[in-house]
Amino acid sequence: MSKEEFPIEKDLPQEDQEKQAKSAEADKAGVKDDKKVKDDKDKKVKDDKEEAAKPADVELDQLKAEVAALTQKNKDLEDKYLRSQAEIQNAQRRYSKERANLVKYESQRLGKDILSSVDNLERALQVKADDEASRQLKKGIEMTLEGLVRALKDNGIEEIKADGEKFDPTLHQAVQSVPAENDDQKGHVVQVLQKGYVYKDRVLRPAMVVVAQ
Predict the structure, then answer these.
(1) 127 three-class SS
(2) What's the CA gap between 16 and 205, in Å, rounded?
(3) C-alpha separations of 148 from 128, 135, 152 in Å
(4) What is the pLDDT of residues 180-201, one digit of tens each?
(5) Which of 170, 175, 161, 169 minimizes the C-alpha distance to 210?
(6) Are 207 and 160 in contact (CB under 8 A)?
């Protein structure tokens, strides 16, 4: 097709040239408007995403805080549980120890009450027997005392050695002191005023003694 069939802009009439220019400007404006719309749309999408992300971040922070609080609570509960277990074990050990002591020292009170009877029988034997009746009575007292001492020994109660022994404040109770006859006698028991007794590994009654100084 020849140039005559497609006239260029300078060959068009003035009015057509103006229409063509306006059409070109309108096309340019339309392109700009389309771009602006697209930019605005993209911006809105971005803003929407940011707005949507904000609640998610807040929720994530809340979840993290809840997890931290639950972790601490679990730690506190575990600590309380361990403490409770330790207290229960300690209580069980104390109970077992007390029970063992009750079993071990079950005869302590009875033995302590009998000691006064033993003292009375020993004092009775110190009385001089002048006739046959007195001697027979003394013999009966001796047999009774021997039976009591044997019963005490069978139950773990034994006499504390004191006469001539070195004074021991855990076993002896000094109620009097006298001058020592020699250096070897110093700090030793020279007389027993009342016998002492031990019950297994306990002092049931300390011996009342006189100590040489």
Answers:
(1) coil
(2) 140
(3) 22, 20, 6
(4) 988 889 999 999 999 999 998 8
(5) 175
(6) yes
Decide: 175 and 209 in contact? Cβ < 8 Å: yes
The DSSP call for residue 166 is B
H helices of the chain, in order, are 14-104, 108-125, 132-154
CB environment 138-152: b (16+ within 10 A), e (fewer):
beebeeebeeebeeb
pLDDT band of residue 107 (cuts 50, 70, 90) is: confident
Does position 167 have pLDDT exceeding 90, yes or no? yes
Report residue 212 as tokens.
């040489």
How far lies 180's CA from each of 97, 170, 188, in Å? 45, 22, 9
The answer to whether 187 and 204 have CB atoms below 8 angstroms apart is no
103: nearest Cα among 146, 60, 156, 66: 156
Residues sharing a CB contact under 8 Å with residue 138, sequence separation 6 or more, in sequence order: 124, 125, 127, 129
Helix (H, G, I), strand (E, B) or coil at 180: coil
